[in-house]
Amino acid sequence: MSVGIEPDARPEPAQSPSARPRRRRRWGPGWANLVVLLLVGGAVGTPIALLLLNSFNVGRPGGDAEYGWGNWLAGFVNPEVRGAIWNTMTLGVTRTVIALCVAVVLAWLIARTDMPGGKTLEFLLWLAFFIPSLPLTLGWILLGDPQYGLLNELLRAVPGVGSSGEGPLNIYSFWGIVWVHLTASTVPFMTVVIIPAFRRMNVTLEESARVCGASRWWTALRVTVPVMTPAILAAGMLSFIWSLKAFEVELLLGTPIGLNVYSTQIYEWVRSSPPQFGIATALGSAFIVLMVAMSFVYRRALRGKEFTTVGSHTFSDEPVRLGRVGRYLACAGCLAFILVGVVLPVGFVVVGSFMRRYGFFDLKNPFTTEHWSSLLGDSLFTSALWNTLALGVGATVFGLAVYLALGNIIIRSRLRTRSAVDVLAWLPVAVPGILLSLGLLWVYLGTPLRTVLYGNVIGLIIAIVIGHMATGTQQAKGALLQISTDLEGVARVCGAGRLYTHLRIMLPLLGPALAGVAVLTFASAVRDISTVVLLSSHESRPLSILMLEYSFGGELERGAALGVLLSVLMAVFALIARRIAGTSLRG
Amino acid sequence: MLAVLGLLAAGCAGGGAEQDQPAVQQGASECGADSQEEWDELVAAAQEEGTVVTSGPPTTEVREQLPAAFSERFGIEVKYLGGRSSELAAKLRSERQAGIYSQDVFIGGADTMANVAYAEGWLDNLREAMVGETISDTENWVGGEMPFKDPEGQHIAAMSEYAPPMLVVNTDLVQEGEVTGWHDLLDPKWKGKMVADDPRQSGGGANDIGLLLEEFDEGFVVDLYQGQQVALLEDYRQEIDGLVRGRWAIGISMLNSGVDEAIEEGLPLKVITPDDARPQKTSGFGLLALVDKAPHPNAARLFANWLMCAEGNRVWNEAADIVSTRADVDTGASDYARIKPDLQYWDSYDWEFVTKGKQDAKERMKELFSD
Q: Chain B within 8 Å of A572 (Cβ-Cβ)?
């Protein structure tokens, strides 16, 4: 059964089963299949293939290669792995399911209703996503530690709540880890990805349902949300894979209670001396298998369905009316979640950056600007800032072009290799950043272009674009699925060339979605450490490398200051991107 | 946002970070003093090259102070690559396999220096690179000789050596005299009240296991770490903050700079040197080596000489906040960290332990904790 069918579609005349309605334009001759596959496969597949090949190399590091199963056995025949797999899956499934429910509700309220303060709430969610996880998690420790956490101290003051000296909340627990992920990354990320899709919702589809007698909530559940399937499914899959790879929060909150996760095993092999990248790759390959399987499930779920919301007929994104009381109740609910889940820990990070010692309010003269002064006066700061801006803007511009091109190939073209391209575009998200970085290092050093690619910002830009490919491509795909090909057809009939059609019709329609792609790509470029650490040089290192220094040396305060600075940078970019792209499809 | 911009303006207007000028102690030997001609030739050749590339620990003070001091002294740029040793080694190996030799000098800890750089034959002869005889004179060194750690005594030298804080107690929870040695930790009242740096990972925690296995036995290690339910963490700051706040009463193998900083802030911590076993000594990140096929061999040699002379050695140890191996360099380190000549120490940088014993200790701890 299809959803999101344009409301004035007339029943098609009976056709033979073999006849197919022409849905996509033809894209070039057969050789295009090979060229596209080689380009995408080369960029994505080569580093991954090198990593997998190395995982079978059991020779001494630096010595002659010898091939065997030793690394795979060492990785998987490990008594800790079974427990780690169980912990990882339960954490990942739990937080993905909860986050999807919360994010869909938040995105619907912000983008599709007349709830007041939607833009502010959306901005706060972006801010939560921008702040690095380490200072944010430490903020939650200060709030939720069972003995000295501020929230616990407040709750224990209430008679009957919790025993003296401990609880009732405990951040060092399964649910503590889930909560920190939900508020720090999963819900904000999903909401940011899904909101543009909701903004392109055509109210005429909902009106048709209401005319047939459906209630407001039934319409939302059976019409609006199903039409958003591509974006929701993509957000869910991406978040699930990221949850499998996550380890920083688990390291801080899970290690004290013996809760280890799968990615911790990978992280330990990478950090060992000598580093065992072969074993780490063997373990990491499980993500690749899972990702390939999920990408097939994704394509299967969308096959044969229409998700067009913006067509050649009248478009309206008139918001759903919640009622005079309802809109304020909804706002209060969202605000409560965001205040507790986002503003509180983010506030701690900001305050922490001005403290002599993070979270120690009872020191004599607990506040200082020394950490900001030392950060801004760092001899590396200016060059790293310029590198960061170059990396961020470069990755965003290049990434937008690549992701839009891939989206068009996968959604609009009739290339026989588009399914393979779709799977390849998913792959980079399944590879842990440090391993992807190593694979790209081998690629860069192995080509004649290494003087151009290695040790400079260009190489870092390419690495970021590849690393972020899954997210960017899925966002572009989701946007393209919602826009009818009739619009291009109409433009062509009126005499517009392909370039004109793209510039004057498609890009403005895709604007809000592309703004989302740009923001997430920029954030990824600015915050990334694991992808750039092996590829950067003294001249090209960005500000994120300073974060590595601060976390290594336990300099939380300076780390918090840098986190705030990077977040301000990302927030400014986000505002600029939104201003350029616009947030509404209305004229 | 306006506040951040204001700080940005203030920071930039204030210029770069304050840079400590290297202060050479009165009477300390000057680099190349007894081979002035050779020294001057080396300086000229190094200045001709103009650059030296070194890797080192990703600590801000070292990254800022070391290059600035050397550059000011000789007019040679120092490109400092800070990072985790394991990651830097992987990068270097890939470069070398591609025929690229980008690095001149190594500064770091023993794990990677011994098990990767030395084992794969990346190191040049550091002893032969020293200029003159004075630099090797016995009175210049705490141990009576220039300290080399590799078996040949030619490739890996120690710029630093100190005693890490073995036991750190929260003085609000542990009374004076309650804990004086390792065996006091087996008291049931400390069960669940201790934290340690994870001995299953690369780092100081595994060194403690090596010490305890040699001074006592495996039974003691099991009774302590498993029996007393010691919490094992990897983040130094989380360990120390938890100790300060009273989440734990006793810390094992804490980071010396973090402990010193907390004590300076007036927080209730105290370092205990156990009296029922030899104390441990280590060099931390203070090992120095020359990379073979260096792109700037003369600048590398000059840099290495400077770091082993009093002048550069002081800059390094002050920036890293550890103790020098030179007898004529005093950085004002805490008393517990200084190597006492009348004490016998267990050396965590003993070659046998670094190349084999530490890995065995880590594996054994993994087995114990997976049971």
A: yes
Greatest alpha-carbon span in chain A: 84
pLDDT of residue A29: 64
Query: Taking a C-beta distance cutoff of 8 angstroms, is the pair A113, A317 a contact?
Result: no
Which chain A residue has its CA at the smallest distance from B200's CA?
Answer: A268
Rounded Cα–Cα distance for residues A569 and A573 (Å): 6
> Distance (Å) from the C-alpha of residue A279 to the closest C-alpha of chain B?
14
Q: From the CB of residue B151, how many other CB atoms can be counted at a distance below 10 Å? A: 13
Rg (CA), chain A: 25
The answer for B 187-226 residues in CB contact with A (under 8 A) is 198, 200-202
Taking the CA of residue A373 and the nearest CA in chain B, the distance in Å comes to 5
B13 touches chain A (CB under 8 A): no
Contacts of A568 in chain B (CB under 8 A): 1, 4
Residue of B nearest to A145 (CA): B247
* Beta strand pairing call for B105-108 and B51-56: parallel
What is the full DSSP assignment across B190-231?
A: GTT-EEEE-TTSSSHHHHHHHHHHHHS-HHHHIIIIIITT-E
Helix (H) or strand (E) segment spanning residue A525: helix A507-527
Distances in whole angstroms, Cα of residue B72 to Cα of each of B29, B40, B78, B310: 19, 17, 10, 16
Residue of B85, B91, B265 lying closest to A356 (CB–CB): B265
- Euclidean distance between the first and final Cα of chain B, in Å? 53
Q: At residue B90, what is the residue type?
A: A
The Cα A42–Cα A339 span in angstroms is 45
Q: List the one residue out of B91, B360, B83, B157 whose CA is nearest residue A62.
A: B91
Is A277's Cβ below 8 Å from some Cβ in B? Answer: yes
Q: Which of A17-26, A204-213, A553-562, B167-176 has the highest mean pLDDT?
A: B167-176
Residue of B1, B7, B201 lying closest to A376 (CB–CB)? B7
Nearest Cα to B316, choosing from B338, B292, B287, B337? Answer: B287
Say if strands B346-347 and B194-197 run parallel, antiparallel, or are unpaired. Answer: unpaired
Interface of A with B in 435-474 (CB under 8 A): 438, 441-442, 445-446, 450
Residues of chain B contacting residue A545, judged by C-beta atoms under 8 Å apart: 82-83
Query: How many angstroms away from the CA of B65 is the closest CA of chain A?
Result: 10
Q: Which residue shows structure tokens 């790209």? A: A440
Q: Give B17 to chain A, closest Cα distance, Å.
A: 5
The ipTM value here is 0.85
Q: Which of A377, A381, A554 sits opposite B237 (nearest CB)?
A: A554
Rounded CA-CA distance B154/A350 in Å is: 50
Q: 3-state class of B353 per DSSP?
A: helix
What is the rounded radius of gyration, in angstroms, for the C-alpha atoms of chain B? Answer: 22
- pLDDT tens digits for A2-50? 334 344 444 444 444 444 444 445 555 677 788 888 889 999 999 999 9
To 10 degrees, the CA torsion angle through A463, A556, A128, A258? 90
How close is the nearest chain B Cα to the Cα of A561, in Å? 10
Q: What whole-number distance in Å separates Cα of residue B350 and Cα of residue B271?
A: 24
Q: Diameter of chain B by CA atoms?
A: 66
B112 and A CB contact within 8 Å: yes
Contact B352, B336 (CB under 8 A): no
Sheet holding B77-82, edge to edge: B77-82, B51-56, B105-108, B287-290, B157-158
Q: Mind listing the pLDDT tens digit for each residue in B101-131?
A: 999 999 999 999 999 999 999 999 999 999 9
Angle at B137 between CA B131 and CA B141, to 5 degrees: 110
Q: Among partner residues A359, A441, A565, which is closest to B91 by beta-carbon distance?
A: A441
- Which of A556, A525, A518 shows the shortest CA–CA distance to A543? A525
DSSP conformation class of A222: I
